[in-house]
Structures are given as C-alpha cells and as structure tokens.
Amino acid sequence: MSLIEITEVRKSFGANEVLKGINLDVQPGEVIAIIGKSGSGKSTLLRCINGLETISGGSISVAGAQLADDEVHLKALRLKVGMIFQQFNLFPHLTAGGNVMLSQMVVKKTGKAEAEVMARKMLDRVGLGHKFDAYPDQLSGGQQQRVAIARALAMQPIALLCDEITSALDPELVSEVLAVVRELAAEGMTLLMVTHEMKFARDVCSRVVFMHQGRVHEIGPPEDVFAHPQTPELRQFLGMTGHA
Amino acid sequence: MIEFTTWDILRNLLLAARWTVLLSLVSFIGGGLLGLALLFARISPRRWLSKAIGYYIELFQGTPLLMQMFLAFFGLGLFGVDVPAWLAAGMALILWSAAFLTEIWRGCVESIARGQWEASASLGMGRLQQMRYVILPQALKIAIPPTVGFSVQVVKGTALTSIIGFVELSKAGTVVTNATFQPFTVYGFVALIYFALCWPLSKSSQILERKLNVAHRNH
Amino acid sequence: MKYHLDFSWLPQYAPDILKGVMITLELIAVGGVLGILLGIFCAWARALGPRWLKAPVGLYVELIRNTPFLIQLFFIFFGLPSIGVQMGELTAANLAMVINLGAYGCEIIRAGIQATPKGQFEAGRSLAMSPVETFRHVVLVPSLQRIWPALSSQVVIVMLGSSVVSQIATQDLTFAANFIQSRTFRAFEAYIVSTVIYLVLAVIVRQVMTLVGRALFPRRTAA
C-alpha cells in the first residue's frame, strides 16, 4: 500500500482551477521532487496534503488518515505529515528549543522534561544543539530553517512536506539546509519537496514530478526526466533553468 | 450664601473624581473582558458569527456614546425597574468599550503573519491552541500601546454619564459651578483633573509604542 | 415585559428632527473644514515649524486630547464669559468642535508629514523653494493622502461627539430627541430614531470625506 495516496485532486480559487485532477502515489521512503513554473500548482498541491487548503474534489490519504474538513481528521493527518515552509515561520516569541517543544506539549501532551529531551535531540540532529536558547531573530535564515525542520521532526511524522524551503535563503546558506534534507533522505524519511534546486533533485530524489497548468505533466526517475524530457513544456522548463 | 475658597472647590471636585476613576476602571475592565469574548467570535471561522459581531462594532462605533447611554437608561427602564444612573452608565460604557477594544485587538491578531497560523496548524494544533500558544502571545505585545491609548477615551467617555445624572467629576463641576458662580475656575480645574488622569496614560501609550517600534526594527 | 413601541408621534415631530439634523450637519461642515485647516497648521508647526511655536502648539494638542469634549464645551460656553468672552451657543459649539478636531487632526496629519521620504524635502529645496513653499507644494498633499482614511474616521468621531452640544442648548439632533421625549414621554423610541439617524449621518459623512479625498488626490500615486 502507498504511504500517500493522492487521487483526482482538484482545487479552485474562485473561477480559477489550479489543480485539475492530480494523481500521485508515494511509497514509504520515497523522496519526490515537484518541479514546475510558478503558478503550475505545485505549492498548492503540497498545502492541500497538509490540509492548509481545502480541496474541491478528489481525495488525499496519508497512511490511512483521510483528509477531511474537520479538526479531528485534520489533526490526525497532520500528526503523520510535517511541513516546512519557505518563510520558516518559526514562532518569534519562543526560543529555538521552545519552538521545538511547544507542539509536543500542546498537541501530544508530552511532559515538559520529555519534550525538552526530544527537542535537544532534534536540534542536535540538524546541528543546532548549541542554539537551544537562541531566539529566531538571533539566528541566520539557514539556522532558522533547520530549527523549523527540527520542530517538524520532533512530532515524529512519517513524511515531510518541504515547500521551497531554500528559496528565501541567501545562496551561501542553501547548502547547510540541503545537507540536513539529504541526511533525512538517507535515513529513509519520506519526503515530498517543491524545489528549484535541480541538482539536488537529480542527486537525491527517487522520482521527479513535473507539474504544468495544474496537472502532472511528466513523472519519472530523475535520470529519465532530466535526460530525456518527453514534452516540449518540460524541455522548455529545463532549458530555462539551465539544466537540460 | 456660603463662601467657597479655591481649596473648597478643588476638594469637592477631587472627591467626585474618585467616581470617575472607579467608573473608568469598571468600564475598561468590563469592556476588556467582553471585548475578549467578542474578539474570539469576531475572528471565528463561522461567517455569520463574525459578521454579527462586525455589525455590533459598527453600531457602537457609528452612533454617539451619549445616545447609547440614553438608550441604556431608558431601555433598562422599560423593564419596569427604576434604573440607577450608575447601572445604565456602566452598562453603556462597557458595551461601547468592548466594541472599540474588539476592533483594536482584531487588528493586532490580523497583523500576525499568516505563516504563524499555518505553521502551528501543520504541527497539529487546534484553533484554540493556536490562539493560546502562538497568536495571542505575539498579538498581546503589539496590542498594549493602543489598548492603553484607548483607556484615555474611556476616562473621557465617563464624562457623558453626568448627562444621565451620574455624579462624577463633570457633574460635580456643574454642581459646584451652580453653587459658586465661578465657571471659569471650576471648569478649568475639572479640565486639569481630567488631564492629570489622562495624560500619563497617553504618554505611556506613546512610549510603549516607540519601544515596540524599536524592538521591531532590530529584527 | 409588556411594552409596546410607539412611533405614532413621528410625523408630527419630523420637522423638529429635520431641523436638528441640519444643525448637526452645519456643525460638522464648519467644524470639519476649519478643524482640518487648524490641524494642518498645527501639524506643520509641530513637525517643521519654528521652535518657539512647537511648545505652545504641543501644549494645546495635549490639553485637548486629554480632556473630555464636554468639559471643553462647558469651559468655552460657561467659563469664557466670566473673563469677558461671550458667544451664542451655536458659535460656542462650532468653536469647540474646531478646536477639538484641530488637535486630533494635528497628530494624524503630523504622522503623514513624518512619513514623507527625506528626498522630497531635499528635492524641493534643491529647486530653490523655501521650506514653507516646499511644505505647501511638495509635502502637504501626499501627506494628507497618506492619512486621509484616519482623518475621515476622526471627522466621523467628532460628528458623533457633537451630540453633547445639546447640553448648552444648541438645537442639534440630540436636542430634538430630548425635546421630543419630554413632550411625548416616548424616550426610548425618540432615542432609537435619533440613533439610527446618527448612524446614517456617520455613513454619509464618511462618504463625503471619501469623495473629497478623491477630488483632492485624483492620482493614486504617493504611498
């Protein structure tokens, strides 16, 4: 059975249909890169999987948890998939440690001591154990994004959604974040990432999804997708980004 | 006729000012509690609820406080009881303050970036948890200066209760004027006492605001 | 509760209400125009004016903003005659509103002036305009445009606040309501009617301010 099952998902904003029937099955341990032009619907798809957008049609399930529009179902789903955002979205009023501890204590009702142990472990894992007491505005963008990853990992999700997580970073900070993701992939974490880092997608991902005008236009292993694009749209897209 | 010294005038006014302070406190605290409840309703995802509170706010912000007091006074009177002025005054001021505070606080909550809602949602928090642990702690900080600023409006608003017969600082001013025939001195003092109550609040609101802006710039 | 709302008095007293509405509108028209002009002057004085002017204007603004309008009104109408300054109730009401809006308007407009990019002043000066000319021709209009919504809200607040001028027997809308309730003993109904009218007036005043804004700032350029 697939870990994530996306079936005929449609999503409209008003009269504008941005997802026109998406089908995608993700196996446990797969690392999937979603590429495409802006406006192709790739971020919307990711946000739908986490229930941040309601879908207009179709269905999404993650390890048996169905996406539905009520808080109970949403919570069950979100406990299984974590999400990392382009703008980090750390809680500015909490320290790095506090950020990682909060949802464990509030959502999972984990005790404070236990949550702290987990927080330290996760911050260590992203190489920021020494920044436990730092506030977000004392951290670089790359460090903030790594704290955000630790925060999601602390909830022990079975899959992570990464929405352009390096797009807001200065170029010199991109690699430290990608290194963390690469490690997660190596450890077998299921990853779905919208990204512009084509080299990273080629090196790390098991499959690449090219989205175009709200549809999955091409899909396949990176060696195929990058080396032998089947459609003119993908060829043009890869040409634009300089990775033909 | 009894002779009033300046001290007599001032003493009488200061004694009455206690009621202004008390009524201000009751109105501000009562309005704050009601306002907090209305805030949750105003930002509720339930459209009809949010809209209803929106109309409430528009009604109280779009009509004179004096009218609201008259309506409270005579409206309560319809229930057949003899309504004491303090009750009508307090009720009108609480309802009025709540409307303004709700609107001020809604602005603060809405100024919190959408990403904060999304991040906390993606971590599995429910709506109340998001409010309690993520949104309110941040909104509270930016809400303090305008809230303190609004307290000045409350103190000044209590002056209108004199018109429906509640004896506080303004009413005392009229009474003392009628006894002394010294309106210039009396109303001058009344104004100064109000100023002494309000100015520290205004000033601290400004200082808090400036501090907050400086803190923001350091991000 | 056995109370039946009764509005049968309404046709008979409609002329009184209309007269009150006209006075209230007159008050806010005069108070609005002169108050904004006073506010512009005070804002200029506090933001860019000579040092000797800053302190007295600041004192005026703080005094008005930290005392109730009712007391300002009483001071003008009852207090000033004892030092020889006498005026009718309508004049007193007008004056109080101008002074009140002038102070609030000052702070709102000042915020608009202070948000002016420094380059605007420098550009004006580099074109050999005097500081006052620079203010008048370069700074003022974009500044007003920036804060026009806030200023419009303040005008509405002052209009609603004007209901207390009935306390010095100015025959405004509230005065009409008081008069009607004393005649008909239908206090609740009289105040419901006047409250609804105030609500409508608030919408109208806001609309007028929006139209004036559109006329003053035809191009939506300056941020």
TrEMBL record, chain A:
Coiled coil: none annotated. It comes from the Bacteria. InterPro entries: AAA+_ATPase, ABC_ATPase_HisP-typ, ABC_transporter-like_ATP-bd, ABC_transporter-like_CS, MetN_ABC_transporter-like, P-loop_NTPase. SUPFAM superfamilies: P-loop containing nucleoside triphosphate hydrolases. GO terms for cellular component: plasma membrane. It is found in: Cell membrane. The keyword Ribonucleoprotein does not apply. One of its GO terms (molecular function) is ATP hydrolysis activity. It holds the Pfam family ABC_tran. Residues 4-238 form the ABC transporter domain. It is a peripheral membrane protein. Keywords: Amino-acid transport, ATP-binding, Cell membrane, Membrane, Nucleotide-binding, Transport. The keyword tRNA processing does not apply. SMART domains: AAA. Belongs to the ABC transporter superfamily. This is Amino acid ABC transporter ATP-binding protein.
TrEMBL record, chain B:
It is found in: Cell inner membrane; Cell membrane. This is Amino acid ABC transporter permease. Keywords: Cell membrane, Membrane, Transmembrane, Transmembrane helix, Transport. InterPro entries: AA_ABC_transptr_permease_3TM, ArtM/GltK/GlnP/TcyL/YhdX-like, MetI-like, MetI-like_sf. PROSITE patterns: ABC_TM1 (PS50928). The chain crosses the membrane at residues 20-41, 53-79, 85-105, 142-164, 184-202. GO terms for cellular component: ATP-binding cassette (ABC) transporter complex. Residues 17-205 form the ABC transmembrane type-1 domain. GO terms for molecular function: transmembrane transporter activity. Belongs to the binding-protein-dependent transport system permease family. HisMQ subfamily. It is a multi-pass membrane protein. GO terms for biological process: amino acid transport. The keyword Transport applies. PANTHER family: BLR6398 PROTEIN, MEMBRANE COMPONENT OF AMINO ACID ABC TRANSPORTER. It holds the Pfam family BPD_transp_1.
Automatic annotation (TrEMBL), chain C:
GO terms for biological process: amino acid transport. GO terms for cellular component: ATP-binding cassette (ABC) transporter complex. InterPro entries: AA_ABC_transptr_permease_3TM (IPR010065), ArtM/GltK/GlnP/TcyL/YhdX-like (IPR043429), MetI-like (IPR000515), MetI-like_sf (IPR035906). It is a multi-pass membrane protein. It is found in: Cell inner membrane; Cell membrane. One of its GO terms (molecular function) is transmembrane transporter activity. Its main location: membrane. It comes from the Bacteria. Keywords: Cell membrane, Membrane, Transmembrane, Transmembrane helix, Transport. The chain crosses the membrane at residues 20-45, 57-80, 147-169, 190-209. Residues 21-209 form the ABC transmembrane type-1 domain. Belongs to the binding-protein-dependent transport system permease family. HisMQ subfamily. This is Amino acid ABC transporter permease.
